[in-house]
Amino acid sequence: MAYFPLMQKTKISTEAMYLMMENIFKLGYRRYQWRVTH
């Protein structure tokens, strides 16, 4: 998932991540991994 600079470090980005993780676990996955590239 790519964020625009305006969206970084905001409540919106936190909520987007939460919703994505919630959906992944509802689909039956048991693991979620976050990777960051600078």
Number of domains: 1
Q: Order of SSEs, N→C?
A: H
Q: Which percent range describes the beta-strand content?
A: under 5%
Terminal Cα separation, in Å?
A: 14 Å
What is the β-strand count? Answer: 0
Alpha carbon gyration radius: 11 Å
Number of helical runs?
1
Structural class, from secondary structure content?
Answer: mainly alpha
Helical proportion?
40-55%
Task: Estimate the mean pLDDT confidence.
Answer: 86
Description:
By secondary structure, the chain is an all-alpha fold. It has one domain. It is 42% helix and 0% strand. It is built from one helix and no strands. The protein has one helix at residues 11-26. The longest helix is centred in the middle third of the chain and has 16 residues, at 11-26.
For this entry, give a set of tags.
mainly alpha, 38 residues
Short note summarizing the structure:
The protein is mostly helical and 38 residues long.
Structural topology:
Blueprint lengths: L10 H16 L12
